[in-house]
Amino acid sequence: KWRSNPAPYASVSLSNLSTPHAPGWWHAHERTQPEQRIEYSFGDAQQINVPGDWNSQDERLFFYEGTVWYQREFHFTPKQQARTFLYFGAVNRHADVWLNGEHLGSHHVGFTPFCFETSGKLAEGENSIVVRVDNRRRAEDVPANRTDWWNYGGITREVALLETPTTFIRSWELKLDEGGTRVLGSVQLDGPKARSTSVRVEIEGVVDALDVESDTNGRATFEVPWPVDASLWSPESPTLYNVALTAIDDAASDRVGFRTIRTRGKAILLNDEEVFLRGICLHEEAPDRPGRAWSENDARTLLGWAKELGCNYVRLAHYTHNEHMLRVADELGLMVWAEIPVYWVLDFENPITQGYAKAHLS
Description:
By secondary structure, the chain is mainly beta. The chain has helices spanning 296-308, 323-332, 351-361; strands at 2-3, 10-14, 46-48, 67-76, 82-88, 94-99, 102-107, 114-117, 125-134, 159-165, 168-176, 182-190, 198-203, 207-213, 219-225, 241-247, 250-256, 261-264, 267-270, 273-275, 279-282, 313-316, 335-338. It has a six-stranded antiparallel β-sheet with strand order 3-2-4-9-6-7, with no helix packed on it. It has a four-stranded antiparallel β-sheet with strand order 1-10-5-8, with no helix packed on it. A hairpin with a 2-residue loop joins strand 19 and strand 20. The radius of gyration is 23 Å and the shape is globular. Residues 1-9 have low confidence and may be disordered.
């Protein structure tokens, strides 16, 4: 598993090209002969921190809205019987990604994670990633041309090269039913052995060991009683339970809190008790440096300030924040009002806009 280094690591070159022609920048060619018609060079380009926005790292880019090209080389040694995925926590806002000159795909939502499978596409030895980032605002975007926050551009969250078994745990969900009496769960497997496969579920203090079998779609579901002596999550007592999932050669773990939340008239009920929300709004702004917040330390500082103010909830305005904010909020005992940027003037008659809005919810 590879993660981006918080030290300067990515070469960037500036360009307003919208559709470059082959041989394009994505090949990251370097001139070897004076007569070669290569009008750029990543080799001597400036360095930039990733994760990070470009606005706060170079005063020339403070107000810049346009295209920046990123490039990084890395060494890779493949493992037997493994799949690989190139993961981005977020890129604001239009991203195109190439691996060794091959276009992996595009992503056009600036605040959500995405990944591309790179199994069989990575070379043994040296590899090159090129990412074209364009943060220009467009009428069909979500958010659109008008916002009231800074339009940070760049690879603003963590990047990782993930290795998994050929069949792996793609996703899982755990929650209490509406009555708070049963735990409902599901696990989604991905791979050639996803069907009819045993999945073991362990929830400390709730389920010692439960084996369930996936269906023909690779999905396993289960429900178990909620123990009468177990503790529900609340701001006053933010109890988290260790969860472990195993299937074939893969394993996953997490820490989650169980709670119910519903409304009764104008009242909000947490675990069937009326709660009064005391909170503040937060943008994803770094607390001790210019630019975007993205790290666990950023989350602990921002949410720690909220706790010092006596908050029991925070509103994460106006877009999807990084996952550290949600995990640390669970740990500190803060409820979260999460939002998506379906905000102000949007072209909802445009199917592209509708698709971007739905992508924020997926």
